């Protein structure tokens, strides 16, 4: 039973890593295989996948879908990792301060966290992108600033737990400053759950970016999977592959990060599946 | 139930600052937006001299200090004045009011589908933990979690509307309507099916996961052993003892997910041309109508807060211990 | 002698992989008669609770392997399927657990939980079952039982909750009650009340009682016979007076010596408590032979062999190569220890 479980865990992790490695290779090789602008019109429009020279076909304007897919992989990865990085930084900061200091600071920050958790954050992100003008930077900012509450709750709980431990009291009585204690004791102890959560956050950020681009709020100067689905929508009746192919790529990328997160969770927090 | 009333009042008082901060956020966004009301008006009219625009600004007192402007903004909000949408030639509040029922219906139906299906699947999964059925359900829920909402919608359209021609893919009802109560209800249900399904897909997988883990946790608790020691059947234990307790965290999750459900409904409404707030928001994005977008943001935030209150009420009714917490 | 109410032979409970099993209970035999109280004593982790749960097969969720024979009124119940076993639980064998704070479902009223237990074994209408539930609450001396039926568990204090748990166990009118540390989680004053209640109920209903505890005071007050467990095995069994007067196994002797006695005379020199050196071995690191040998002052090379249980008389047995004999017993000859 345990053997099967550990194999399953390893399989989930491995599957995630393989998917992500493939996507990274795709993103890195985009400029090598297709150095031209993916927006260039290169062939007859509406070529179905499998056409000679165009393995994934062409879209309704005659742009190469394969080139677009590879170039778009970079955008998804950049936005996903960037936004997750921003929200991990924000969430960790807020969570640590809130959990470590407690009291009214905690009250205020928890209200803020609650606010960001209850409000329709996707709408807020849309507003931010509209107002700041769509660009990779504004998208990363909008997604990052709306998705930190999960992290901050997590880090807060860890910080509160570690704060109670004797070595923290010992450090305090020795006159060590708060920032040093946070850096040396609290943060390393909350690292494991944050790493797992970050992986899931990347997955969510990729989904959100795709939704934004699908609604026409992507960076207009770069191609992304979401915007490809959005563009392909109008040809749904005649050429559904234009939406299916980039959609499947989003799905795969998200699955990759989810599997990675699950695998990491089993690896770093073995306690969770004891029962 | 005075204790319950007191509890609700306390929750309301807690939510008030949240509402205020949302208003502040939306005001700041309005300030951040390029151009002001006069720019928009000038843009709409097509020809306006700088002098005329300065005069207009003077007339609307737009050069006043920030706090005066914010005060005026609050005052307008208090009178349910969300501004004017020049693109639609209509009061923003009026535009939104037209669209709220469609969105609420969609969200409600989606949550019900997701909860009913998700809780049953999650319960089955927990009951048969580690067996193949559990594996299948868990894998499906991971897939549901990873699939973009709009993509599910588009694929459903390809399969059920384009290829099978079973269900309509756009709108809320047959144009012109259908005569008779039952036929018209059926007609609406047919239009509702695909959007509600695609919106519920993501939340379905959340419910499956949460139900599974909550039930597994409760299965390990002492009172389940007490129940077993009574000699009652496993089904009774699963439903009366385990599920009822596992539902409590699910209620909380539902409350927390309402905001993101609203976001999901924007995408779904766009895919299915569902005439709700989301579709309105999409049009507003397309026309860069910031006034309207902000109105939608404010209004949907308040809707979510209100629905959270209802969820709290539900929680308080389900959990007998709530009285001692207030 | 007539058939015992419960007759357990060679009970064995294993956890973990079959190749390297953790043996929580090993070759355990016990008998309980109607109207009799058998106390099972031992330190935490010695397999007392696992034994209790294994008897009614309530070791749910863990992959425990149970073997041996469990006869209830002469009928084998260890081979019953899960459905038949449900007919035994509550109806014939009632269980009381340690922590009353967590043993009751927080979202069901006390009355509903009682009614559920009653209707599980008796085809009664809801009204009848409710009346029975009220009687049960009365029986466990809960004041104003009619009013308290609709209350939820959080409205009850720890002692009151344990009374409710006892009422639940009595709902099916069982003839055997297994109480697993029923007073450990309670205040000392309440402990005495609950023990008194259990004793009264046992007499009233003529039940057999298996009382699991680590508290020798509880044993002395309530038990007829005592079984001492160490590392999953029975090391000694005696009637209660014999056990306290002349413990045979060095472990039992150590337990009794380590027990703080009430100082009657305040001017007397305080007697230092004798503790048993060392720790209970982990299940994964059980030594060959006697598990207590490493802590035992009487151990010899012979103790590397598992000692057989030696029957001294019909009610007394001990599993030790060097048991204390009545003649050289240190507790019986205190003057010799001083000399």
TrEMBL record, chain A:
Keyword Transmembrane helix annotated: yes
Membrane-related topology note: Multi-pass membrane protein
Domain ABC transmembrane type-1: residue ranges: 73-261
Location relative to the cell: Cell membrane
Keywords: Cell membrane, Membrane, Transmembrane, Transmembrane helix, Transport
Gene3D superfamilies associated with the record: MetI-like
Matches recorded under SUPFAM superfamilies: MetI-like
PROSITE patterns hit by this protein: ABC_TM1 (PS50928)
Transmembrane segment boundaries: 75-102, 122-146, 192-217, 238-260
Major subcellular site: membrane
CDD domains xref list: TM_PBP2 (cd06261)
Protein name: ABC transporter permease
Phylogenetic placement of the source organism: Bacteria, Pseudomonadati, Pseudomonadota, Gammaproteobacteria, Pseudomonadales
From TrEMBL, chain B:
TM stretches of this protein: 12-30, 104-124, 136-162, 189-208, 247-272, 292-318
Lipid bilayer topology: Multi-pass membrane protein
Key words of the record: Cell membrane, Membrane, Transmembrane, Transmembrane helix, Transport
SUPFAM superfamilies listed in its UniProt record: MetI-like
InterPro entries, per the entry: BPD_transp_1_N (IPR045621), MetI-like (IPR000515), MetI-like_sf (IPR035906)
Principal localisation: membrane
Positions of the ABC transmembrane type-1 domain: 100-315
Subcellular location: Cell membrane
PANTHER family documented for this protein: ABC TRANSPORTER PERMEASE PROTEIN, DIPEPTIDE TRANSPORT SYSTEM PERMEASE PROTEIN DPPB-RELATED
Family: Belongs to the binding-protein-dependent transport system permease family.
Protein name: ABC transporter permease
UniProtKB/TrEMBL annotation, chain C:
Chief location of this protein within or outside the cell: membrane
Highest taxon listed in the record's lineage: Bacteria
Keywords: ATP-binding, Cell membrane, Membrane, Nucleotide-binding, Transport
Gene3D superfamilies noted in UniProt: P-loop containing nucleotide triphosphate hydrolases
Compartments, record wording: Cell inner membrane
Residues in ABC transporter domain copies: 8-256
Molecular function terms from GO: ATP binding
Enzyme class: translocase
Catalysed reaction, written as an equation: a dipeptide(out) + ATP + H2O = a dipeptide(in) + ADP + phosphate + H(+)
Pfam families: ABC_tran (PF00005), oligo_HPY (PF08352)
EC number(s) recorded for this UniProt protein: 7.4.2.9
Record membrane topology: Peripheral membrane protein
InterPro entries, per the entry: AAA+_ATPase, ABC_Ni/Peptide_Import, ABC_transporter-like_ATP-bd, ABC_transporter-like_CS, Oligopep_ABC_C, P-loop_NTPase
Family: Belongs to the ABC transporter superfamily.
Protein name in UniProt: ABC-type dipeptide transporter
Source organism of this protein record: Pseudomonas typographi
Organism ancestry: Bacteria, Pseudomonadati, Pseudomonadota, Gammaproteobacteria, Pseudomonadales
